[in-house]
Amino acid sequence: MTKEIGKIFYIGMLKDNPVYRQILGICSALAVTNLMINSLFMSLGLIFVASFSSLTVSMIRQHIPRHIRMMVQTLIISAYVIIVDIILRAYFPSMSIALGPYVGLIITNCIIMGRCESFAQNNKPLASFFDGMAAGLGYMTVLLTVAFFREFLGFGTIFGIAVVGDWWTNWIFMIMPPGAFFMLGILIWVANSFIPTKEQDKEIEIKPIDINKASQETVVPGGAN
């Protein structure tokens, strides 16, 4: 079981990272990564929703009619997103304001829906819980990495703490939307350069066909007329 869980985390966080490899969830990855603290809270919220949504879907998968399973999954995801939103409003009001509508948009995040449909719908609860967590952690690594470079270059801070002196010139470009696209594009390129693709995992040897030899071996049914 430990090996299976380790494999789930390896696939979810590295080999099949939802952002680097599947290019999913980039809306929030671009919108909230100007500060690391915003990215951290957004990531924690998504990890919670992805983990418990996958767990719930897996637990009741035998009782969900196939033709309405997507609607049921969306309702389950919505319930957990509402919990996250209530907690933020009650205990972290400033963060709730900073994240704005992007907390609610977790409902339509393709990462969560994808894990519920492709994994939780066909696997046991515990494995589904860790699969959702792995996908969320993979998402978190991307958000925090993008936010690290954007906040450091754009503000000269890390988690709001100044790490450079007054001599530092802020890169205004990095805290603007084009800076998010630029930074995410570079990270996706770097990640895909080091993480092997599915095609590289299974190299298929294609042998050339000798046309002359093939024509000589062809037999015409019934003989020549």
Automatic annotation (TrEMBL):
This is Na+-transporting NADH:ubiquinone oxidoreductase subunit D. The chain crosses the membrane at residues 40-60, 72-92, 98-116, 137-165, 171-192. It is a multi-pass membrane protein. GO terms for cellular component: endomembrane system; plasma membrane. The lineage of its organism: Bacteria, Bacillati, Bacillota, Clostridia, Peptostreptococcales. InterPro entries: NqrDE/RnfAE. It is found in: Endomembrane system. Keywords: Membrane, Translocase, Transmembrane, Transmembrane helix, Transport, Ubiquinone. It comes from Serpentinicella alkaliphila.
